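Ticket closed. Logging final result for Peptidase M20 dimerisation domain-containing protein.
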Amino acid sequence: MAVPFAKSHFLWSFLSIFLHILAVFLLLLTTYVSAHTFSDIGSEDVDSSRRNDLYSEILRDEALARLNELGKVSDADGYLERTFMSAASLRAGNLIRCWMEDAGLTTWFDHMGNLHGRFEGMNRSAETLLIGSHLDTVVDAGIFDGSLGIISALSALKVLKSNGMLAKLKRPVEVIAFSDEEGVRFQSTFLGSAAIAGILPVSALQISDKSGVTVQDSLKENSLGITEESLLQLKYDSKSVWGYVEVHIEQGPLLEWVGFPLGVVKGIAGQTRLKVVVKGSQGHAGTVPMSLRQDPMAAAAELIVLLERLCKNPKDFLSYDDQCNDSTIESLSSSLVCTVGEISTWPSASNVIPGQVTFTVDIRAMDDMGREAVLYELSNQMYQICDRRSVSCIVESKHDAKAVVCDSELSSQLKFAANVALKRMTGEIQDEVPILMSGAGHDAMAMSHLSKVGMLFVRCRGGISHSPAEHVLDDDVWAAGLAIVAFLETHL
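Final structure:
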């Protein structure tokens, strides 16, 4: 039996070797055919490869170098801080102005300190495409918030200039670096974009910072003498604007979670900021019995816990009526966020029952009607708690902005551009670009009063922002720039 088994074993071994050789041959043949198929396309792919090399050099390498350079322009030592009309803000503006001119743009500063860079295109009387973001920062900021949107736009225009396509733009394109979005210095957001959109009241010129310097004074100190008349003249004619586009880091974790570098923004949450002042009876920590206290700190603590409970479970607090229906409750359940970010006490001593406690409330939601219902219920219950505790309560509105829905057509164009960019980078058709809501406020909120708006989000590590830990991958910076290039190519 040994001999037949040996023959059989030999035959199977021979067949196995033959099949292996055949598989290798077919693989080589496939590679050969594939290589010749690509070479048959000819110079077009060579040009495409060359363009991609150019794109990465400008849109990634140079853009990152500029972001890092801009990140060193700060009013503080050891961390990034750049506020409205500060010395660092002016230096940053002059630096960005050089980069605008490098991209072939005509530049100027307006009376609100906004920096503009414009290319007229083939038809200077056509409606203008505006692209922008803000050059100011929060205290102890990251280098991408705001700056990425400006640099990506300029890099994209420089690419068009480099490949000779800039002059073929069929409409004017204007990049705006807004002077103030964060509102750090004057506690008033969107000073720059609100002026362009025509929604900044003239009274804003008299808002003071902590040193008593007004907005108007700060502009005058920097040779930008603004008056009520010149403020009104800053407003763009809505008929002259085609649309506004903004690239911004997501400032949230969703894109990282789904593993996608870019996302299109469907809308921006409405926002209300409150200042709550609770006044009680100041006294000695050791001599006033607990039953006789009118303690504003304990009352404030209960108010803050109320806010958390209401915002976690709005359906348990809100009553259903014509204005608050199932869809409103559902929207609130998925988008409502509430924050107490600042709290102070007077006289703030460990052995003194406070006389006054002041704290801030930030409420955001996509449904404006639902947000108003939350505010109404919150105020009612706050006053009830204060009455029960025999303390006084003052709830003051400091800021209110309605939710913004991004233009569907513009969003579709940005989604297409993002797909084109990612296909150019990977050579493959990608999954569907995610559609996101923005809980953070952006200049697009103010610009929506002037024109249709669209936004493109860029993935950031851990969703971290407003922090030096803020980080965007190098290739994600490249993807953002490529998406703007692809978007601008639709305007050639």
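Confidence is low (pLDDT under 50) at residues 1-47. No further action required.
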